[in-house]
Specification:
single chain; two-stranded parallel ribbon; seven-stranded parallel β-sheet; alpha/beta; Rossmann fold; about 270 residues
Length: about 270
């Protein structure tokens, strides 16, 4: 199997396309000849990216400025996508928080659930019928190695990514033989740029430069895995270690260790 062949009427949708992995996925898809619909809150940044991709790769690029954590804003986008020829969907948009749940902002935690889990579900349901009718399509779910284990001080994020991880692999089982690929991307730390030492976070200081992976590398191996219809792609040494620990280590041992680490991230706020 492979990715759907680019054609003038089809679009690849990338959420969270204004930065990081989403921006890299959009650039890689455009380089492969796919026309795009870019989705994120920051329309101005996406317009700049859209212009660059049109000029460099001669593809059509549409921009949809939308806060996917807002149900009312999602409705028009879902209605549009359900009526469009969507060949590829990259469910990439997501946010994270760190620290004890009791200390975190209620509204932001709820938005995190909406964005990381509910929006992923909504967008997938919007494009899936068309893909099945055409017997062709590809869905990349951006979960996380964090979704394989309980993580105190990162509870909402870990729980929402657990949903994405399980949803992806469950849906994949349902779609076997339909012509629609589903691949889960479960990354660990991804670096978009080298931080100034004066502004480096606890995570930047803790993780050696050699263990970070780039957005560009993550996007490439993810799309290659999607084209090969692999169940899961886990790029980078840290994400592989987290996945292994989450799947095979006793949770009573792992949770306190990982939770202590994430509490330090929360203390940086």
């Amino acid at each position: 199997m492979s990715l759907p062949t680019p054609n003038p009427t089809a679009r690849a949708v990338v959420t969270g396309a204004s930065s990081g992995i989403g921006e890299a996925l959009a650039a890689d898809l455009a380089a492969r000849g796919h026309s795009l619909i870019l989705v994120a809150r920051r329309g101005d940044i996406m317009e700049k990216l859209a212009t660059e991709l049109r000029d460099r790769h001669c593809v059509d690029v549409e921009v949809r400025a939308c806060d996917l954590s807002n149900r009312e804003q999602r409705v028009p986008l879902i209605e549009e996508l359900s009526g469009r020829e969507i060949s590829i969907l990259c469910n990439n948009a997501g946010i994270a928080t760190f620290g004890p749940l009791k200390d975190l902002d209620f509204d932001y935690e709820r938005d995190q659930v909406e964005l990381n889990a509910v929006a992923v579900h909504d967008l997938t349901l919007a494009v899936l019928p068309g893909m099945l009718n055409r017997k062709s399509g590809a869905i990349l779910m951006v979960g996380s190695a964090a979704g394989n284990m309980p993580i105190p001080n990162n509870a909402t994020y870990a729980a929402t990514k657990a949903f994405v991880n399980t949803f992806s692999e469950s849906l994949r089982g349902e779609l076997k033989g339909t012509g629609v690929n589903v691949t889960l991307l479960a990354p660990g730390p991804v670096r978009t740029e080298t931080p100034d030492p004066a502004d480096a976070s606890f995570l930047d200081k803790l993780v050696p430069d050699a263990l970070w992976i780039s957005s560009e590398y993550t996007a490439k191996v993810s799309l290659d895995a999607l084209a090969a219809n692999k169940m899961r792609i886990v790029p980078g040494i840290i994400s592989k270690a987290m996945s292994t620990a989450g799947q095979y280590s006793p949770r009573a041992i792992v949770a306190p260790i990982v939770g202590s680490f994430y509490s330090k991230l929360g203390s940086e706020k």
